[in-house]
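Support request, please re-run this one:
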Amino acid sequence: MALAGVIRGVIFGLTVLLSTLAVPTVHAADPFEKVKLTPAAKTYLVIKDINVRQKPLTKSKRVGRFKQKSIVQAVGKAKGTEWIAVKKDGKNFGFVYGTALVPMIDGKLTQPINGNLSAKTIGKMKLPPCHYKIHFEGRVKVEGDLQITSDYQLPVQCDFKKKTLKFTATMFMTELPYLDNRKPIYQINVDVHDIPMEDEDVFSSTILYHILKKEITFDGVNKEDMRSDGKIAKMKAASVIEALKGAVAMAHQSWGPKIWAALAKTENR
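Re-run finished. Output below.
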């Protein structure tokens, strides 16, 4: 019994000693912990080789480098600056100056989008109800530009003057900002074909997707005398899918009497 007590005492003493010698776990510091971040786009295209800094300062320690044409994920922007807080391998990494980055979106659809357009009155015109489907066709690199577009087919079926009117429009959405590279605003076009006009046969409705505001706004058409005369209100759009569906609804509202007459005439050929 005395020997057993001694052994237990030795084991207890060793346990205490080892616990005092244990090395505490060291966690890597979060580079964003002490930086106030404001909303920014989630994904960026790197347009030139650029250093990644530990802090949102040019003289801060370099922690890495991104090559041109890399695609990086971001969590925000350092408040009051152009420094973008970026990730690497899913972890908070450092800061990149915004002039080297262009915010981008992914317009690819994994499956078609089905939608309905209700009958409504815009200005003096009553729009017919329609059903549509958006099919993703692929991405196209714009020649001589950084811009990439996602292209779509848009078959539409409407109940027009007690008849079924079928036609196929097309759509595209820019995956990079359409004007200012630093502002995440993207262009969506809905094009109706075989519309007789002076210089072309495509009637285009342009919608702008403001990703940070999570809304779309109507920008205009390429032929004013063929659009409806009503005001087209902005819509909420928290995702690419909502933006595309909203763009079709806005285009539908922009089609004036001459567009519907031309579509009916084409259908009856």
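Residues 16-27 have pLDDT under 50 and may be disordered. The chain is about 15% helix and 40% strand.
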